[in-house]
Structures are given as structure tokens and as C-alpha cells.
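This section describes the prediction task in plain terms. A model, or a person checking by hand, is given the sequence of a single protein chain and must write out its three-dimensional structure as a string of C-alpha cells. No templates, partner chains or ligands are provided. The sample shown here is typical of the held-out split.
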Amino acid sequence: MKYLFNVAAALSQLLNAVVFFGDPNETLSGRCYRERRVTAEAIINALFFFQPDHCLKSHLADHVFAHKILEYKR
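The expected answer:
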């Protein structure tokens, strides 16, 4: 299951980077939350109805990932 989650997160990062010219280390869901894109956030949250506050949780997970990268580079 963790493998599938990692693949989904990687695809979201790829979509954010390639299609929307965003940061490759940020998921599309996290970006929508961070930039307060209310309509896009509502659509994504509706698609992930089984995970309440999906965009917020993705944004927080992006922060955790960023901290791991910073710690690794020390």
C-alpha cells in the first residue's frame, strides 16, 4: 500500500512540475492549498472524498518531505 501511495505522490509532483510549471518537490494538491486555489482545491477534495481535507494533508506532507530533504543534505 505504501508503494501505491508513493507512486501517486510522484505522479502528482510530476503533474505539478510538467503541466503546471510548479515545484517538482510539491504535490498538486499541496500547491492548491498553499496558493488558496479554492475551486481547484474543492475539485481535488471531492475526487479524494475518502480522505477529508486531502489538500491540507498533502500540503502538510509536502512540509514533512521538505524537512527530510533538508536533514539529508546536512
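For orientation: Helices lie at 2-18, 28-34, 38-47, 54-72.
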